[in-house]
Every structure is written in structure tokens, then in C-alpha cells.
């Protein structure tokens, strides 16, 4: 920090506010990031997991950056292979994955006999 900046800060704190925290601003409240839009975005993603943020924004007539915030931060989706998927697996997802793995393992064992057991052990 430059010397002149230090002098400016000393003068500024000597004359008035002593807090380093931001003062509350009298800005417009957020209107796009609300429960209704969150629900509408979630419904669109569930209907078509390949829908792009730009398409969602055009369809709902809300800004792209708001849709991006809703999709990533509020709803917790991420884009994998051009599809929206939840960031964390639920217990149901884990159980389905386990069941599918068991069926595939059983199928391999039936096709290859005992050989598959030697590979896994």
C-alpha cells in the first residue's frame, strides 16, 4: 500500500466511520432469485436435462447470470456430458449403482465361470 493511501485512510477514519465492514446499501432487492423461479428452473431441468442455461433464461425471461446462480448454487446441479446432474449422490442413487454393479458382476460370473473370481481376489 502506498504512503499516500495510508494518509488518506488515516484522515478518513479520523473524520468519520471506524468500521471496516460494508455499510448496508439501498439497492433494489433481488427479484429474480426467488422460490418461484427456483421451482420453475428445477422443473425445466427435470423435464430436459440437456437444456442450456441460455435456453432456460430465454424461456423464463430472467437473466442468464440469475439462472446460472440458481442452477449451480441454489439447486446444486453440475453439468456432466451435456446433462444436468445433482452434485451429490442421494442414498437412492447409491443403492441403484450398487444393485447394477451386483447384476453386472453376476452376469460376468455366469459368462466367464470361475475366472472372474480369480481376477477380483
Overview of this structure, please?
The relative contact order is 0.07. By secondary structure, the protein is mainly alpha-helical. It folds into two domains: 31-88, Arc Repressor Mutant, subunit A, CATH 1.10.10; 89-121. The protein has helices at 3-15, 35-47, 53-60, 64-74, 91-112, 115-120, and strands at residues 77-80, 83-86. α3 packs across α4 (64-74). 60% of the residues lie in helices and 7% in strands.
Mean pLDDT: 81
What's the number of domains?
A: 2
Strand order in the largest sheet: 1-2
Head-to-tail CA distance between termini: 63 Å
Task: Using the coordinates above, name the CATH class of the largest domain.
Answer: Mainly Alpha
Q: Using only CA atoms, what is the Rg?
A: 27 Å
Which residues sit in consecutive blocks of at least 5 with pLDDT less than 50? none
Sheet/helix structural class: mainly alpha
Estimated share of beta-strand residues = 5-15%
User: Oligomer, anyone?
Assistant: single chain
Protein name: Histone-lysine N-methyltransferase SETMAR
InterPro entries: Transposase-MT_Hybrid
Organism: Elysia marginata
Region (Disordered): 15-40
Give the gist of this structure.
With 121 residues, the chain is mainly α. The protein has two domains: 58 residues, Arc Repressor Mutant, subunit A (Orthogonal Bundle); 33 residues. The chain is elongated.
